[in-house]
Design a protein that fits this description.
By secondary structure, the chain is mainly alpha-helical. The chain has one domain. About 75% of the residues lie in helices and about 0% in strands. α1 packs antiparallel against α6, α3 crosses α4 and α5 runs antiparallel to α6. The longest helix is centred in the C-terminal third of the chain and has 48 residues.
């Protein structure tokens, strides 16, 4: 579970259940696991801020949790913002799906990088350890 699951729940809540955006954000937070704070902050901003749009609340929450995200992920999540809460459900759903797909792509790229560079670092670790043993002997 993570931000992708939260985005899926948010899409479902908006498109099929047509519930208010703050409540949809709260439901998405329940499904978002370690990314729940992003959705919770957006929901609380919407509930507390008079005249704050869904776009502004989402971008504010994204800014507040910026330390969690790589630049590619922040950019992907920002694509969900335009029209959030102010356009028709189908448009919002398309933007959320685009953001979800972009986040999934970022996660796949991160896994590929981890596999590639992880092997290099593990090999260097073994080689360094062997060299240390040889120096100590």
């Amino acid at each position: 579970m993570g931000v992708e699951q939260g985005l899926l729940v948010l899409m479902r809540e908006i498109e099929y259940l047509s519930i208010p955006l703050p409540m949809a954000m709260e439901h998405a937070a329940l499904a978002a696991g370690n990314a729940a704070l992003l959705f919770e902050l957006a929901a609380s901003t919407l509930q507390e801020g008079y005249g704050v749009s869904g776009e502004e609340a989402w971008l504010s929450a994204l800014t507040q949790t910026a330390a969690w995200w790589q630049e590619e992920e922040k950019s992907a999540l920002a694509t969900a913002a335009p029209g959030l809460g102010s356009t028709d459900a189908a448009s919002q759903s398309r933007r959320l799906e685009l953001a979800r797909q972009r986040v999934a792509g970022c996660e796949q790229l991160a896994k590929e990088r981890e596999d590639k560079y992880g092997r290099i670092w593990r090999s260097m670790g073994w080689a360094s350890g062997a060299l240390l043993v040889l120096l100590l002997v």
